[in-house]
Fold these 4 entries.
Entry 1:
Amino acid sequence: MSTAGKTVSEIAREIGISRQALYKRIKAEPLSSDLQPFTSRVDGILYISADGEDLIASVCSSSSRVQGRVNRADNVDCKLDSQPDNQVDSIQESLISQMSAEIDFLKKQIDVKDKQLGDKDKQIEQLSESLRASQMLQAGLVQQIQCLSSPDEQTEPKPEPESKPRWSIFKRWKK
């Protein structure tokens, strides 16, 4: 141990997690900003003072020491359980504000989509009206064509089919 404090590797071994996991926690907010006054770099090695070590230990619960690797949700629970109420409140407030911003963004997207759907409904209505007008025009033209062709058929006499004498086999037997 150096006089500047302990290295990240030494603290990670004491806590029972990997060096990479500890670096990940140190880089994440709010620990990153809280830990900054307790860290120093000497020859490219990060040293953490005893107060910083206590802060890191308070962030990690005993369950994370045993498990080694925990999922992200457990890390949030660990941080919330081990921090004072005012820090928990600030974390909750930041999460709530992030969620509210996301909800507002999604609501704006829904409003835009609703407007687009309204415009499409208007277009559909206009096209439907145009189609009805076109169909009525076509029906009118078909009627006119039928009326024009009907008088010609009425003036020309239709030839009546010639009546052929019917020969019946039963006629012979009746006599």
Note: Residues 6-83 form one domain.
Entry 2:
Amino acid sequence: MKVAGFDIGGANTDLAIIDFEGDEIKNIEVDFAYLPMWSNNDDLSRVLIELIENICPVSEIDAVGISMTAELVDAYDTKKDGVLDVVRKCEETFECPIAYVGIDGMLSKAEIEETPLKAAAANWIATAQIATLISDNCIFIDTGSTTTDIIPIKDGKECAIGKSDFDRSATGELVYTGTLRTNLASFLDKVKFNGKEYRVASELFAQTADVYMVLDLITEKDYICDTFDGEGKSKTDCAKRIARVVCADLEMLTMDDIVEMSRFIHKKQVAQIADGLKQVVETQNLDLIVTTGLGKDILDKPAAESLGFEVKSMGDVLTDDECTVAPAVGTAVMMNRYLN
């Protein structure tokens, strides 16, 4: 059986197509696309089809599983509206069996229509399926382009205290910070370099992708989102944007200055994730951390190590590309189990 698992986010839509023989995974192929749902949600159906066809003909797909976080984008008045719009578009796109990841497991279209918020931002439920392949007792951290999930697992089952993004933002289980799309001014009030502290401009000047390009921690291929100024994604372009954060430019600052700033910013974001992790650890009394997502080595591993915890990577069971779309992989796994 060939199952497509989609994770439809506010900015990125990820896909994993898995060939199953019973419950055994025979092959995984993955892809993703930048799709800003706040402005281009009418393109969703086209993007879903294109992603599949990048890998195989749509006719080869036996079933589709969907997880989502796109319901939060400001194109929708409420999260309920967002969930139902995504469901409607997915149902119109596929003729094969389709179901949706919810906080209690897979849900049919009818079940979603009764309780749509059960599917809102539930993609971490899918990622938990993969984390249990490494340990039945751990905390997994998944940092993607935009957010960080910090989810405890005990006896092979997720045991998050919060079940919605709203609740998880109070428990440490959601830290709204990511590897690419996070505005630097959202977690900085000052930047320290050249022996001085500079207050930052609270503007949409630079994002975390700019920092990690400058530090050689991501490539232009990884930088899939739009830039804040509409310009390029080279190191120089990124450095220009970072300089603006302290009301400067590259005639006032050297590239060495920008690198020093970027290292400081990196440490601040690591500390932001470590703060959420510390809260979850203190609540759950778990000390093995499993990392995944684009930020698994850039942010999650150093955050866990800064607190002295043992760290394992989901890269032990998945490739780096598969880790980047781990919720989509988990969604396909859940869909296969749902059908069987």
Note: The chain has twelve helices and 14 strands.
Entry 3:
Amino acid sequence: MPCKKCKDGKVKWGNTGECKYDTIAECEEANKDYYEEIKPTKIVELLIDESSEELAIDAISLVTAPAIEENFVYMSKAKNNLTLAKVDEDKRVIISPALIPNKQIFRYDPNTDSEYYVYFSPETVRRASELYLKHNNHHKATYQHQDRVAGVLTTESWIIEDPKRDKSSLYGFDLPKGTWMVKLKISNEELWSKIKDGELKGLSIEGFFTNKFEGMQDKEPTNKEILEALGEILNLKSYTEYPKGASQNAERALIENERLGNKATATGLQKGRRIASKSALSLKSVKNIFNYLKNAKKGDTGDWNDYGTIAFNLYGGNVMYNWCKKILENQTSK
């Protein structure tokens, strides 16, 4: 929701803001909290730790929002599913990418309240697929990265060598060379029901990897850094009991954004997913969300065909704004 030129030459914030700024720079400065919220994040390559190879890929998890942003395909005769595999629903088979090389995957560190992206090189993806089978993890699976579940078995695993000729294209995928694909047999009744209902949409890996730049961070902290870290620990608090309405707003915004062609920013989408799933928020996150909503509120028209409304509600909308305001007021009064 950037600053926009008005017919009279002035500049306004969003679609419904007042035409009161003389320049775009003045408008952006007045609404700098919004731009700070979408600041670039660091990108880190992940590698397999040679000392913990058996933990590289410990399990595959069935999730509602896959980190690699690729949904799986389940074989069914229903009109809304691909049927090119010629496998009927009774076989309960799903096909999905497990890892896509060089795909930037969003991550959030609640300990530092920092957002960043990670990725895997083609070599790491291939090695991970090999270790997954070498250590007999093909029968290990979890639900939403939490509970171990039975009745999920990897029956096929392969690396895409030629995207045009690979059989993954038969299932509607258009994925790069080096992608790790898997076919899973689902005999778990509850999980299969969730897959058919569209609740579970993809796969996400579980494993142990190391930051390529981890060694660069092994330095002696200064006294100032130690004191700052201690202050953060003493004041550390997270919030999970925010209003259900805020999560519902974020969930609908994610759906409406997809309907309108996925125009939301990566940061907005990730924030929406966190709020929709009621992930823990630090006090700093609460402050950032409040500042963002205070500015984004000007672009909320109440029309779900308007991106300003979607952007506002990805962060929980009015419900989240009021809740954050109350939290911050309580902090001030202490």
Note: The CA atoms of residues 152 and 186 lie 5 Å apart.
Entry 4:
Amino acid sequence: MKTLALTTLLTLAIGAYTPARAQGPYDNRADAHKDIQAALAQAQADGKLVLLDFGANWCLDCIVLSHLYEDQTVRPFLDDNFHVVNVDVGNWDRNLDVSQRYGSPIEGGIPALVILAGSGEVVASTKNGALADARTATAREVLDYLKGWVAQKPAHAAR
């Protein structure tokens, strides 16, 4: 009788279990194509740039970079100048077509960033792996990258 009760309880518990979304900034259920198009439309309307952040929730450097975005010196500048789209690359098996479309920035490692004007024109990229070791970066360094990319914004994209 105890075995039957325990088996029933375990069966009910397992049947009711639904896995939670992975913790982290990269949503494996997101539609990167749609998210990028929406960000580009917003950028055309407000003159901001689009920052594509390619990464994965298992990647320590990606998580560190996402935390650096939240720094009190970085967040206001990021919000004022960029629409951020996190692009989940999974285990190198997700959104690879998106990466290819923007020059395969993940070849140098992740996190990899691509900066777009509202027109979709690539303004800058970390294809060289510049942020692939983000765990050693400081908020100041991230802010300097962001400022440099804003300075490269095409004149026709500026408002």
Note: The chain has one domain: 26-153.
